[in-house]
Amino acid sequence: VDRSRQGGSQWREKDWRKLETHFEVKVFLTVLYSLILVLGIVGNSITIHVAQVLQRNGYLQKNVTDHMVSLACSDLLVLLIGMPVELYSAIWFPFTSASGNVSCKIYNFLFEACSYATILNVATLSFERYMAICHPFRYKSLAHTRTAHLILAAWLTSVLVAVPLLVTTGTEGHVVEPGGAPAQNLTFCTNLMDHWRMYRSSVFGAFLLYLLILGGVAFMCRSMVAVLRAPMVTADTSAGGGEVRVPKHESARLKASRKQTILFLVLIVCMLFVCWMPNQARRLMTAAVPKSMWTRDYLTVYAVLQSVADTFFYLSSVLNPLLYNLSSRQFRAAFLQTLRCRLAVQHVNKRRLDEHNASLASSHLRRPLLRMSLRRSALPSVRTAHSVSQSAGGGPVVQVLTPPPSVTSETETSECQ
After folding, report:
1. Number of domains in the chain
2. What is the Cα–Cα distance from 161 to 155, expressed in whole angstroms?
3. Residue 124 included in any domain
4. In 3D, which of 232, 280, 287 has the Cα closest to residue 255?
5. Rounded CA gap, 138 and 1, in Å?
6. What predicted TM-score, i.e. pTM, was given to this entire model?
7. What segment(s) does the record annotate as region Disordered (predicted)?
8. pLDDT digits over 312-328, tens only?
């Protein structure tokens, strides 16, 4: 009996160790994660700096800057909190956990809160741009502190989404077979079986919130695009039913900036769908079937999906600065200047004043040339001059300046005296 138990234990231990990735794959994922971490920290840090500089120089509105800074901060927290832990626990030591039960709970809570703060910040930014473009009068009637309230609501909502993980997660040994004892080499930070229903409800609720946010942002982007595609509106101007076309938006510059914001929102919705969906599928796998009922094939699929899902999930925190650069030429120029440590942004009012003075100077330089051309055109097109001088012999010498070939004239003669 002891031998059979020992043989069964060895079989289970050997079988589960096969799920670990090879050493070469671990090294590759470590290099990839390190590259993503460095790019994410540098990109989001520069995004915060550039957004504040552009806002001080009049190129960005303060509310848009606040949303961009909040979104970049949530991306930074996701990378700094999640990636080192995932690199250690999911890649190098997937079936052992050196952390305690309390640290496991805190990690899951913070990571969940920062993750959903990212997508909720996208939702608040979309809502504010939607109100500004589609409902400008209601947007102006709101309080000036609406941006701070929206950002605070986004972070509080993300905290509420993550609160159940403080109860439903912890350090636990995985049960290899139904009714069997936990294998020590499978002890890791996971969801607790004692709070299975609560964990399952929180995961499915968070997934539903994710879908609602994506659908809401897509709807608002569609509405904003529809408004910007109709730049003119028809209004009655007289009692006789006359109509006139009047501009709907203030200026072409404002319309271009709004188009850049919409382009960024559309790109970020597509990015959140592509990069977040594998991670959501992995989470749904943990909530769909209790760990005690997992088969070897089920766990194999989960282990493979986890590496792919984590890579795409962390990649989304790196792509946000890239999307800013794609959607705004001014942001791209300032971003590249910051990378070269040569950031020099001129205030928008001073730049416009310099452009105005340059146009005036060029017009003054053109005025003398214009006057000269006007004087030349005022002269008669045909010039005929006669100069008569007496020669030494008394006979007259007549010099005739002939007109241009295009002008016809009669031949002039002189009589001898």
Report:
1. 1
2. 10
3. yes
4. 232
5. 78
6. 0.72
7. 385-417
8. 999 988 888 888 877 77
